[in-house]
Amino acid sequence: MPTTKVKEEITSKIKSGELTMKPKWYFVVGTALLFQGTLGAILLGIFVSNLCFYHLRNYGPFGYLFLGREGFSPFLETFPWKLLIVAGLSLIVGYKLLKKYEFSYSKHSVYLFLILMASILIAGLLTDLAGFNERVRHNRFLNPVYSERFLGHDWMMGEIRQKTNDGFILETPQGDLVQIKVNKQTVSPHGNQFDEGRRVRLVGAFYKDASRSGDFFEAKAAGLDEGMRWRRYQVKGAMTHKPQRLLLVK
Amino acid sequence: MANAKALSDEALVELIIKDDQELFAEIVTRYQDKLERYITRLGSSKEQSQDIVQDTFIKSYKNLRSFNPKFKFSSWIYRIAHNEAVNLFKKESKYQKFSFSDWLSEVLPSSSNVEEEVGNKIDLEQLKKKLDKLDLKYKEVLILYYLEEKKYAEISKILKIPTSTVGIRLKRAKKQFKKLCQPQR
């Protein structure tokens, strides 16, 4: 197609109004939306990675792996898989939006991704360390995000409140009190000094005790102290929580 | 119109946006042949490249208000043309083959540079066949640098890659091209 023909065609389309320029506001709105989208994705990434750190600190899921084969199931239950996936997706979306900016192509894609990931992780960690989660977890909008449990069907964690003849009374961070039985078969890789005030994670099973008024938990394995760094709970009725299979100390 | 010819691309674009949209015809005059040549070298037929160039001008006119006059207009319009061409190639998966017969009839201004660089005596027909075998990402930097005579910074803006990556790809492109040009034993 000779130059003159293309020129004529384009010029006639411009003259007739068939070909028009997009208005300036179109690009301004586009830029604003891009900025908001990028910022939103990054902030979501920071918040969710902060939640990951919070969960890892509270539950210390890797500690269950030291308790043998039985520890694998509570590890899977307490590890923040869904949060990690959401954080990963936010990172990817944030990265793709960031690539739309002119400055981004002058940086290697891999470096840009790594810098973004490091920034989100560091910001998430600092947010958790600053106590942000403890301050907002009772907020009714964020409450569903912070729904926690320290008690599963075959595992639990808490602090030792009182020693008994055949074990101890455990209190979970949410206030559940459970009678724990330990015996010679109980695996305890970190020692078996079950003193009052110490934090412990347990794997085992609930049983009914005919001689008592409730259930007890027989511990197959117990891990002391490590990896469980929840801060003291102040449950002031903001979270609804039903105690499960408790034997309340009389 | 005489005034328009004396203006830089960036000044002309500003005038088009503020005042006289029909001056866009001058942009078409300046860039049609260059863009057609570039797109043909990338891997399309002459007919396809003409369509792509027309689409490029239409797209660039529609989005003219998004152009930032701090940057070079030629990088901006080359980028649009490049993206249009690559999108078409992806749809048709035809970027490996193209008709060079029309291209051969034009004298490649820098083909002697390419030959000097690879250090081999090859005729243009052979050059076309060898160029065809390169990966698109190497072919495009080779074409932009040697045949379109663009600088690293501009190639970086057109292809949206870091300047260092332009250098790396050019080095690899020349290496690959040299290998292809070596006689088969």
List keywords for this structure.
heterodimer, A: alpha+beta, OB fold (Dihydrolipoamide Acetyltransferase, E2P), 2 domains, 5-stranded mixed beta barrel, 6 helices, B: 185 residues, mainly alpha, Rna Polymerase Sigma Factor, Chain: A, Arc Repressor Mutant, subunit A, 11 helices
What's the structural blueprint in terms of helices and strands?
The complex is a heterodimer of chains A (250) and B (185).
Chain A: H1 3-16, H2 24-59, H3 72-78, H4 81-98, H5 109-129, H6 132-136, E1 155-164, E2 167-171, E3 177-181, E4 199-208, E5 215-224
Parallel strand pairs in A: 3-5
Antiparallel strand pairs in A: 1-2, 1-4, 2-3, 4-5
Helix pairs in contact in A: 2-4, 2-5, 4-5
Chain B: H1 2-6, H2 9-18, H3 24-42, H4 46-62, H5 73-92, H6 101-105, H7 111-118, H8 124-133, H9 136-147, H10 152-159, H11 163-181
Helix pairs in contact in B: 3-4, 3-5, 4-5, 5-10, 9-11, 10-11
- The number of strands of chain A is 5
Terminal Cα span of chain B? 59 Å
Q: What proportion of the residues of chain B form beta strands (DSSP E)? A: under 5%
Instruction: Please give the most extensive interface between any two protein chains, plus how many residues each contributes.
Output: A-B, 23 and 29 residues
Strand order of the largest sheet of chain A: 1-2-3-5-4
Describe it for me?
The complex is a heterodimer of chains A (250) and B (185). Chain A is of the alpha+beta class and 250 residues long. Chain A is built from six helices and five strands. Chain A folds into two domains: 25-146, no CATH class; 150-250, Beta Barrel (OB fold (Dihydrolipoamide Acetyltransferase, E2P)). Chain A has helices at 3-16, 24-59, 72-78, 81-98, 109-129, 132-136; strands at residues 155-164, 167-171, 177-181, 199-208, 215-224. In chain A, strands 1-2-3-5-4 form a five-stranded mixed beta barrel. The model of chain A is unreliable at 234-245 (pLDDT under 50). Chain B is mostly helical and 185 residues long. Chain B has two domains: 1-97, Rna Polymerase Sigma Factor, Chain: A (Orthogonal Bundle); 107-180, Arc Repressor Mutant, subunit A, CATH 1.10.10.10. Chain B has eleven helices and no strands. Chain B has helices at residues 2-6, 9-18, 24-42, 46-62, 73-92, 101-105, 111-118, 124-133, 136-147, 152-159, 163-181. The A-B interface holds A 1, 3, 6-7, 9-11, 13-15, 19-24, 26-27, 102, 105-108 and B 17, 21-22, 24-25, 28-29, 32-33, 50, 53-54, 57-58, 61-66, 68, 71, 156, 160-165.
